[in-house]
Amino acid sequence: MKILVAVKRVIDYNARIRVKADKTGVDTTGVRMSMNPFCEIAVEESVRLKEKKLAEEVIAVSVGPKQCQDTLRTALAMGADRAVHVQGGESLQPLSVAQVLKQIVNKTEARMVMLGKQAIDDDCNQTGQILAGLLNWPQATFASQVVLSEDRKSASVTREVDGGLQRLRISLPAVVTTDLRLNEPRYTTLPNIMKAKRKAIEQWSMSDLGVDEASAVETLQVQEPPKKAGGVMVKSVAELVAKLRNEAKVI
Amino acid sequence: MLLRRTAPGVVGRLARGLSGGRPPRDDKFARVTQEDVQYFREALGAGGRLVTDREGLQAFNRDWLGNFEGATSVAVCPTSTQQVSKVLSYCNERCLAVVPQGGNTGLVGGSVPVHDEVVLSTSAMDNIISFDEVSGILNCQSGCILQALDTYLAERGHTMPLDLGAKGSCQIGGNVSTNAGGVRLLRYGSLHGSVLGLEVVLANGEVLDLWQSLRKDNTGYDLKQLFIGAEGTLGIVTGMSLLCPARPTSVQVSFLSCKSFPDVLHIFRLAKQHLGEVLSAVEFLDRESLVTALEHMPGIRNPLPDGTSPFYMLVETSGSSETHDKNKVEEFLAEVMSAGLLVDGALAQDTSQASNMWRVREGVTEALVRRGKVYKYDVSLPLAEMYALVEEMRERLPGDSIRVVGYGHVGDGNLHLNISDARGKERQEVREAIEPFVYEWTRERRGSISAEHGLGLMKAECIRYSKPEAAVRIMGAVKKMLDPKGILNPYKVLPRDVVHEGC
């Protein structure tokens, strides 16, 4: 069975970010980039399934500009067998990415697609769900545990939901999106990093796949959230009530 | 955890130049009275804090390791240099001994009272005064916490020129007074170079203004160097000017394992060759250190799948170009691998992984404290011999609850030798198996018995292992000149026979 894992290159989780002066977006010059943490978890889970001999091949794919190849190299170093780079613009919308992934699924005959539940730059949480819709496949999102059946025809997925944990049984092929507690990704060790450097990354373009890059969404403005005012100590209950009534206007 | 010794035992240990002894109270010093406390209260005014209750004083009386505990009855926390000056001037008049204290993270008992010395804490003097983003010059009070300063600088594209495990609690005044080293000395040099100016309050309350912010100034003797590393015995640092480097935008961290200490040194040499100007840290830890950290620190993970190699290293680069640095590091790692020097290695793929790798190295210190009693030594040795000391110590000490670990700044020739005893209490037979052997061994190789931790109380009688008599005498003369009554941090740093008597 082949597993397709989608990975996204985003601003590093710990990097300090600033909004550009013209408010068109976040300033990424000189900022450290790395693989989206949820995508990393997806790669780790896929590689583990292969190590458990429940899958034969893990194919990593990334859609975007040339630098995506760095992210793909990380995926290869973690244990992915193949890497596919689909050349595209900087801020692709989930719909476009899902359409690309659908084409790749068809071309590679993958029976499972693993994605991070959301990217930490746009927090969309849409790509997996849209893809499942386009493919007409079952989906299990926010997975904190994935157990594949021996015959690879179904999976039992535990999901993290607001009320607690939900367990689903889905038939394969299927789309799974990963949540934080699914696993702890491995470090990439040197022999694997060296091997990954030597592997070829397959190059495709969005037009090759018949996907229109134009987006139906236009970003009008990006701005920083308002600075939080400092906390205020009140000296009496009367003062507290007055503030709640007159300033916070909650009573 | 009081370190009690009978008087003859103390004299015996001190006479033999050993640590672990506690000198008797020097009765030339007055005892704190209610009038004194009242004076301090008025001198501090509305802003400063005064602590006199027993529970509140515990934090001031006891050191981080729990090895040293004094019995002060008052801790003073001024907010300004003027208040420090007033307090010190008064103490000098009254002949009251004073212990300057910052974050109290020192490891040689230099930051806590031995007896009833007044604690003068800089904790409330935590203002950042100014920062020039072009020159990178930071002006601040001495009570600023190191990590707070680094966070402030990070937002302005700069970084502190030093970094150590205690960064969340240690204060820059204490760092300067102890000439703290840390993990980035390899790259940014010591505080002797980064400190451009100081404001120091002398024992008699006089404020010595050496507070300049000039990169170059060759006018006369460079007095500030005396206070850097004097451990609060020559004056109290209240403010400073620091030269801060630009913050690197690309940090690459790798965690390596190898088979022998000579391999560690070989890797270090190759790191200097291949990584050159972007190399920012080279640390090593032995397997026992790694195991201790993994056993006692929650949330720490071994970056390498296999934990049986005898040695581990952390190599960090800091530069301005991600692609350039990553390529350099990958080339270096390929070279080291093909030379057969590596058992395995991992390269951090994002900042979370990089922090985790650092947490392994930095976690050893706290893990040792959690495991039980720690006999802690910090020596500078010729590189080739660094680990031999650990091996010999392992042979000298019985197994069972004792674990000998070695780790440290191999890039600086600085070994942190720690003997950990899970049994938890100081044992004389263990201490005697370690000392004076460790000091004599170091002296024979012309090393330093305290690379970066300082002398404090623990090694106050040990300076002669690493400094010639003439130097010690001159230090005594300087101490006498700057603090004639000897009220600043008594019993510490210099041997008693050198420090001037008389009030």
From TrEMBL, chain A:
Annotated Electron transfer flavoprotein alpha/beta-subunit N-terminal domain residues: 23-213
One Gene Ontology MF term: electron transfer activity
SMART domains associated with the record: ETF
Annotated localization: Mitochondrion matrix
Top-rank lineage group of the source organism: Eukaryota
Keywords assigned: Electron transport, Mitochondrion, Transport
GO cellular component: mitochondrial matrix
InterPro entries: ET-Flavoprotein_bsu_CS, ETF_a/b_N, ETF_b, ETF_beta_N, Rossmann-like_a/b/a_fold
A single GO BP: amino acid catabolic process
Main location: mitochondrion
Quaternary organization: Heterodimer of an alpha and a beta subunit.
Function according to Swiss-Prot or TrEMBL: The electron transfer flavoprotein serves as a specific electron acceptor for several dehydrogenases, including five acyl-CoA dehydrogenases, glutaryl-CoA and sarcosine dehydrogenase. It transfers the electrons to the main mitochondrial respiratory chain via ETF-ubiquinone oxidoreductase (ETF dehydrogenase).
Protein family: Belongs to the ETF beta-subunit/FixA family.
Protein name: Electron transfer flavoprotein subunit beta
Species annotation: Ostreobium quekettii
UniProtKB/TrEMBL annotation, chain B:
Keyword terms: FAD, Flavoprotein, Oxidoreductase
Similarity field: Belongs to the FAD-binding oxidoreductase/transferase type 4 family.
Entries under SUPFAM superfamilies matching the protein: FAD-binding/transporter-associated domain-like (SSF56176), FAD-linked oxidases, C-terminal domain (SSF55103)
Highest taxon above the source species: Eukaryota
Species: Ostreobium quekettii
Keyword ATP-binding: no
Keyword Iron-sulfur appears in the UniProt entry: no
Alphabetical list of Pfam families matching this protein: FAD-oxidase_C, FAD_binding_4
Name of the protein in question: D-2-hydroxyglutarate dehydrogenase
Cofactor field: FAD
Enzyme Commission code(s) on record: 1.1.99.39
Domain annotation FAD-binding PCMH-type: ranges: 68-247
Entry-linked InterPro entries: FAD-bd_oxidored_4_C, FAD-bd_PCMH, FAD-bd_PCMH-like_sf, FAD-bd_PCMH_sub1, FAD-bd_PCMH_sub2, FAD-linked_Oxase-like_C, FAD-oxidored/transferase_4, Oxid_FAD_bind_N
GO cellular component assignments: mitochondrion
Record-level Gene Ontology MF annotations: (R)-2-hydroxyglutarate dehydrogenase activity; FAD binding
